[in-house]
Amino acid sequence: MKKLSLIFFLIYGITFSQNLEEEIYVAAETFISNTNNTSLNLLSEQESTFKKQVKSKSEQLALVFLQCHKGFYLEKIFQLKDAITTFEDASNRFKTNNLSKFSHFDIIESCLIPLGNLYTKTDDFTNAENIIKQYIFLAEKSNHIKHRTSGIINLAKLYQSAGKHKSVLELTSKNLNTLNINNVQKQKLIDINDDSQIALNSSLSKTIDNNTFEYYKNNYQIALRKRNYEKALFHFNKAKKVFLYQKEVFARDLAKLYFQEAQLYYLLNDSKTALDSLQKATKALLPNHTFASLPLRSELYAENTFIDIFDLYATLQEDYKLALKYYDLSFYISRLLQNNWTSQENKISNQAANRIRSEKCIDIIFNAYQSIKNDTLLSAAFKYAELNKSGILKERAFKQTLLQKYPNDSLLLKESHLLKKQEEITNLLINEQLGKSKASIISALSSDLNAVSIKLKTLTEAINKKYPELENTNFLVKDLQNKLLKDDAVLVEYFYGKKNIYQFIIYNDSINLNKINLDEAVKTHITNFIHLFDNASIINNDINKFTKTAYTLYGILNLAKASNFKNIVIIPDGLLSFIPFEALLTSKTHTTNFSKMPFVIQKQHIVYNTSPAFYLKNEAENNTNKLLGIFPVFEKTKNSLTYSIDEANAIKEEIPSQLFLKDKATKKAFIENSLNYSILHLSTHASSGDFLTSANIEFYNDTMYLNELYSLNLNTNLVVLSACETGVGKLYKGEGAMSIARGFQYAGAQNVLFSLWQINDLSTSQIMKSFYKNYGDNQSAYTSNHQSKLDYLKNEGISNIKKSPYYWSAFVYYGQITKPTNRDNKLIYTLLGLFILLIIVLLLLRMKKSYGKNTAGILN
């Protein structure tokens, strides 16, 4: 009986499997023969059922086939996000079930190529590059020349979209000469190469036949770059005519064509025709739009062409309110695109484009305010300035706060784990690429990174649904002003634009907005002041030059308007992030005695922040106040830090500490112990990185690069980076320098003290001794940083040469204004508390004794 049941089960199982596989293919073929929204809804329902049922490889493959065709249709009807999700699921299903060994199904053509193109269309450049490199590797492995060339073409297009034209030329030139490719693909590589040569103002290496689309397009682009707009229009119209005669014209390409036409007519000062062309571009993407009003947000989707269209609409408006509404639509599309990204590198690069738009919005409001004088306009301008300032850091900090609030939330915990994994893989991938590792290793890491990204997107969607407050991380200006009133402070925020620097001065009861024309003279003053700190001798060799430059820059940056406040919160931006504001001079001076110069630090306490959101953020309670110190020292090497031991001894005298010195100061020791201390102090070497390598910090036995630092999850009150250039790194508009200091901020450090240039070992040791002596007394990093610099200037044992601001102003403090507490007062309060407690205990004992006597008397 058992044997019969087993045979029946096997026969039934095989039949069911075959039926399910066939059912999936029938559902797919039915949809392919009649694609419309009704059949799509039916297919989606069937797909959901199939996902729960599939088990065998043949069933999984059938489902991959279905999903690929569904993805094609979703892209066609502009549901790009759903198309990406569908292709991602198909790709993951194919890989997870190892279907490449089971079938000859062309996953590259059917899934990976369209997925990579969709990533590019939605500006997800990180995932696009990863997926394209994956299928290039797969094509090389199977010696599939056509697919490999398709990958090269799409990778070149991706680099072109990202503005990496030199990479495009290198990639296309190399593969034009080495590949045995067909004529169609060869022409595509030539066309892409030509476009990048034009973008770089290079002369074209090859001529193109007359009367072709590429011929007219190239001539149009060349004329456009030379600002010969009439000639550009002539060639554009010729190219347009050829383009429209093609058998199949996709809506997206049509929209881009009409946008380019609109842009050209705008440059020709023909606003009416430009608007007509913009309407055609909009209609191509939104066929049902009526133009009676602005497009509704519910109509829009994550398509980057919309941003170009709305930006130009905004430029053509005479009404400033309408212009701002169109820009707001562009920002909305940008957010839709960003919602599908997981890599911070991708988000950071996007902020640069958004910053240009923010500057235009601020400029519109500034000009409107000159005639309207409505203070609500200033608040609106401030919000635009904040819209793309340190967005990644703010998002990360908000998520960390949420996790601290809900530490057992499985969604948040999974996301935290995946974010850590993402940065770890990114760090490995960067190192492998620098080391020129095997293509198989790089491909595997790229695949792993893409898999993590897909999981993160699913999680993020669920988290945003569960915590809708994540959609709005803006703060109220009134909350900011209330905190400033409490701290007796003023906030000065800079927005470093392309044409102007905008300065917002936030008082406790008002806002002031100033425009600083960013002409060559102003740029020169800023860069000259920064370069004064390139080495120790520059300032001392020409002290008069320093004093003039420092006072002139103080005036340019309008800091006198904030001079009546003891405390000043500075939000720098762009190149201003590298300026030590404490070293500016508040008045003219002819003295060469540094201790007598009217430095800003002599009158005001300065605290920096990357955004007012961090100044407003409440510090998490961490009462341990214990310090972890890392001191590699590097003795008997050319990088020896001789005075680092003195620094360590000074710290130990003032604060409960665990110090790892010399060969104990390893990266492993730091990672394993960093979560257990409220203060982290690293006295070591660091680098701002270069074009190839990211910023990094040295341990005794190893180097920690930025992405590895990002993967940490700290809850640290204070990080002190007693090392060179910890605040310097590749500068990105809005997000700031990709520095070691930013790495610690991203990892969760609430307050950070770091350096802006290569610092002197001895003076650093002296300043740190003073800092920790003061910190031991007042428990305020903000006050201690200020006082340590004043102590240094007042120290009669230090020569005037060594009192140059080069030696003392390198360290800047980013964080909270923490009110100081006196250590002696704390001791007095503690003793007083104990005395009061003792009296209470004695009184209770006396009462108890008295009560006992009374009870005895009653009983007698």
TrEMBL record:
InterPro entries the record matches: CHAT_dom, TPR-like_helical_dom_sf
Transmembrane segments: 827-845
N-terminal signal peptide: none
Keywords from the UniProt entry: Membrane, Transmembrane, Transmembrane helix
Pfam families in alphabetical order: CHAT
CHAT domain location: 561-816
Gene3D superfamilies the record matches: Tetratricopeptide repeat domain
UniProt-listed PANTHER family: RAPSYN-RELATED (PTHR10098), TETRATRICOPEPTIDE REPEAT PROTEIN 28 (PTHR10098:SF108)
The protein's name in its UniProt record: CHAT domain-containing protein
